[in-house]
Here is the input.
Amino acid sequence: MSRDLRDVLGQFATGVTVVTAVRGDGSAVGMTVNSFSALSLAPPLVLWCLAETALGRDVYRNCERFCINILASDQARVATQFARAENDKFKDIGFTKGPGGVPHLDGCIAWLDCSLTAVEPGGDHDIVIGQVETHRRAPGAPLLFFGGQFMTSVPNVDA
Here is the structure.
């Protein structure tokens, strides 16, 4: 992709998530994802995009379930840690185990536990579709990604 196109696409502010799952041996995996979207309310479906070059790609393509952890405004360090190609992304990161042992990261503003329903081709990415099985939210503001950096939102009280 050209740098210019990437810069133009970066003008669209997105929320930041960490998608977690477990390997066949029960160990946890996680990666930072900002290409997340609701797909349908009935049935409840969400999607996210997984790069062909992503570390752990096979785990996500073949897992039974995953969790979308929606990061809070104070979790830029968490986003950065899960974006790196490191072996122990969970080092110093608190979490509890959700359905199937899939990690729910501490401090997030929302969690969506999903069962994997489809993986479709999408250029140099896979489009991962999941059915939301359980969900919950907590108070707080979201972490945003805009122009190549993490940001926090300021409510527009005039709207």
Observations:
- The CA atoms of residues 121 and 127 lie 6 Å apart.
- The helical segments are 3-9, 57-62, 76-83.
